[in-house]
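User: For my dataset I need records formatted as: sequence, then structure tokens, nothing else. Please produce one.
Assistant:
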Amino acid sequence: MDRKQFWLRAALHVVALGALVYVLMGAAGPGWETSNRHDRVLEAGVWAVRFLLSSLAMSPANTYLGWRSAIKLRKPAGLWAFGFGALHFGLSFVESKPLGTYLAPPIPLYIILGVTGLLILVALASTSTRWAQRRLGKNWKRLHRLVYAGGVAVVAHALLATEMSKRVYVRYPDLTYEVRVYIVILTVLLILRLPFVRQVLREGAFQLARRLGEA
């Protein structure tokens, strides 16, 4: 790993660790008890979405912008997304009264989507090692393409939560606008995955570079 790559990864981990501290102890009052305006469950979920979208953005950054270092950041960003997603689920489970009530039937659609997204992240995180890549062979790449399905499930979970969850409405009313931004970002990232879009953009970039070279 070169020095530039080292510092980029270090910066990513510093941001993630800072976010983790904020989620667990942010807006803390006396005795490190979080204030009424700070919801650890919701904050953990928001950071899971942020890191997941960041991970999904790394491939287009490499493909279209030529930022090769982005590929090396894709995995750690994805693992942090899994970490915050697991924390979001765990805190939701522990803080529900009685314990785990929100998983009792009938389960709301937004929770089903959230659990589905988390299960996909679990599968991807558990097979993120080189050993798993060798064992799975070609199936490894097929499995990890599910990250886009996970992104759709997670963002849809966030969108429906802003509409169906009273907790979100009371504790994080501005989340609705933030989720709309996430929807736009995810839509753009999915469009960039389409083969014909990729071909058109690559040809356009080639023509632009050629014209600039002739100028």
